Fold each of these.
Amino acid sequence: MLTYIQINAAKPREKAWNLSDSQGLYLVIQPNGSKLWRFNYRFLDKQKKLHLGGWPTTSLADARVRRDEAKKKIAEGIDPALEKKRARIAAKYAAANTFEAVAEEWLVKCERDGLAPVTVDKIRWLLAKAYPVIGSIPIAQITPHEALAVLRKVEATGAFESARRMRSVLSRVFRYGVATVRCDKDVAADLRGAIASPKVKHFAAITKPSEVGALLRAIDGYSGHKVTVMALRLSPHVLLRPGELRQAEWADIDFEEAIWFIPAERMKMRRPHRVPLSRQVIDMLQELHEHTHWWKYLFPCLGKPRKPMSENAVNQGLRNLGYTSDQMTAHGFRAMAATLLNERGEWNPDAIERQLAHVDTNQVRRAYARGEYWDERVQMMQSWSDYLDELRDGGKILRPTFPTARRAV
């Protein structure tokens, strides 16, 4: 049987040579000086060899323990070399199926499914906070406690809404892992209620008519960049979400029919949407057309015109006008319109909801309420632009009648 002194004194030769221990265990001394433990055994009448590690990382005592464990497996009818190979393959498979690897694969799928780039970026931002905690762990091995640790880390910063969204994102990644046979269950599903609920905070919006008039007058007097000015002027009239507005393309505008078409992939609810264009909106679009018609986007980014206007451009314009984030936001123009249109009581609430591109949360009602209220929306949007002009001018204007035929531009 070998001793530590013998092993330590063994020197490399021109060719590999062996030092025998006992019961099939021996040490191979390589020409480069490395010393490797091997175990020879027979399994199903075949001579086989098992690698047990290198010395001194694997000591003599450790090598003998591993040899004895291998002999026990052989007695149980298990080939230790084959089992080791399978374990190595499983470890390699697990490494390729870490939470981060599965999450990145899911993100690619989201992009192919047409999820808005800004939404993908927000999800990627959330996942980047999860990776340091669970990113390197095989997704099938992640426990609810480890997923909760991710949420607690975000919650500790006071970002309760981000923590809530993080749980939803984690859940979607786990569900994708289940669907692609990388894990057995969504461990984030059981974490509902485990973190503090965020207080609902609505987008700040001006809804008092006199204050709306003052805002419109301030916008008309804004001396910022032309693209930002036009985005501010159009925002109150078209009832679009800020992302839908800034990503608008000239190909979406039909001046002849006076309709703004928005494809499903650029809508939050992934449904195509139409905006009837009032005479005021058409005039503004024609004015904007003179400045940006050679670019793809109505509102190209300053300095990078092949990209749409910055996500924060309209909000920054409002700040430059002196309105704080607690007073008015880009998204607040929708709340302004929804409030005043409903208060005036002239239009079917469903028509207003359709124009806001809201989806009825009642599935049964949504299944039967398929009308688009288009004719009413055409009249409503012209009336709304007239009303905004009235508020801006601080007085009343004569309301036009609405002929059946649309004015061609």
Amino acid sequence: MSVRALRSTFGPNCHWCGLAMDFEEPHGRPESATIEHLVDSTLGGVRSQKHRRLAHAACNHARNEFRMQAERQFQSWIAARQASEKTLTDK
């Protein structure tokens, strides 16, 4: 599904912030329209048209960065938990 098709289906506003996107902006610029995958395939989602929306490049990037930060924090928490359990069983 293309940006044009998604725009005709969902309108000209960003899925995340609700503000209008600039469809004249070159690809990759903060206010340009990008295709956002609501359920990322790397997280078990299926790449289908119903999981796609339009979002500002900046909103899309920020969402992905926050998700990556959360994943790193979780992995750190798991490692600390495992280390803590290991020290308890070593006693």
Amino acid sequence: MEFQNTREFARQLDANDKLAKYRDEFIFPHVNGKQVIYFTGNSLGLQPKRTKAYVDEVMDDWGKLAVEGHFYADKPWWDYHERFAAPLSKVVGALPSEVTVMNTLTVNLHLMMVTFYQPTQKRFKIICEEKAFPSDQYMIKSQVKFHGYDPEDAIVEIKRRPGEHNIRHEDVINTINEVGDELALVLMGGVNYYTGQVFDIKAITKAGQDAGAYVGWDLAHGAGNIHLELHEWDVDFAAWCSYKYMNSGPGNASGAFVHERHHNDMDLPRFAGWWGHNKERRFLMEPQFDPIRGANGWQVSCLPVLSLAPYLASVEMFDEVGMPALIQKRDLITSYLEYVLHEIDKEVNGNFEVITPSEPKERASQISVYLHGEGRSLFDYLMENGVITDWREPNVIRLAPVPLYCSFEDMYEFGQILKAGIQSHK
């Protein structure tokens, strides 16, 4: 498609957008009495309007039924989480038995590492990417120390080549092969939070397992954003937060995946709790732990239903739309945003540098751009003029054109505000 940087062209794209109606399903903040252009769905998604009804339902049941809500609510709390299995499995490309919802992201990754990081004297190393999200770095280091190893010896970071912003796929594979029979675990982010680079999950998983290691993925920026086939790609485990692209609310419950080939392996270590115990026998209060055969068998505590309610509202919306339609619009609107950025760069004689890969298969709903020569004052101008975006030092802005609620006219209007902001500082 040959793009044009005009309002009329952007409005025509919106008129042809099959997902345009979902924009009205969300609540937008306002700045100066005007609805914002929201680019931070990679940090916290907007609130779906239907969310309140789901939360109110739980509150009403709690008030009317108290403890009996576990069994006699319209959506009984006892099995509330089971409603996620079918729709969420479609989002991440899994069998329903392979997904569950529980805890928060880093907690779930720790729980997965209890099972899938079992170092030995020979095989003890973990591969991760350089400059992963800090929480992952802290988690991996703490796990390594817990097992008695020195992070300097046990953690292998795949680095970017000098002068490059993204990690080369061949460098990931080569590092896995080089570590070889010392490798215990590959644990990476499916989408790099800073650059928006999407990694080849299928190929990296195969390479890691061919080397004799387990392979897991942090999909904080992947779930609800990229095409995933976790079952077919043979991923051992994964976890993701629900409050970014999946719009479940701040700090909300996490999702987790465990491949079905691990479900019946009772020799795998895990931290046990009663909610992971055989559902039909849970209230017998038996002394011996008998885990559920499925991802639910990794649950520990009873689930926070009030937290799950907003997530269920969003998951059901994803089920209505389907990931193929989301990805189709994602690719188009992200490409249009990149085009607008380049056009504004030319108009202001600027020096923008997009550090997100240009190939659609290597990026998702994110454009990270260095605004060389510009400072924090430009970010402040954008925020004051109704563009909610994310600033990362030294002068990078991350822009996430989420397909469920961002419009093509948003992309055009952002370009005009960006242009005005740069010109006001000259």
Amino acid sequence: MKKLSFAIVGAAALALAACGGKGDDALGDNIEDNYDAAADNLEAMADNTANGAEAAALENQADALEAEGDAKEEAVDEADVNAAAVNAM
């Protein structure tokens, strides 16, 4: 589980680094995409496990990641950060 947490944090860091700084919604979209990808990985793990309880737990974690990604994307979009102005400072 620690590896998954590190992967998620790394993916989020890459999303922040990849932001083009154009003040558009790309940053929020990248964050959400990374959370969705991590959730997809958990769902694939759930599909490949024979233990029903473990599969259900993985599915719940995937759902939680998707919800968290949606919330973070919304927060970034609501912040309406003008990346050009921030970079000019």
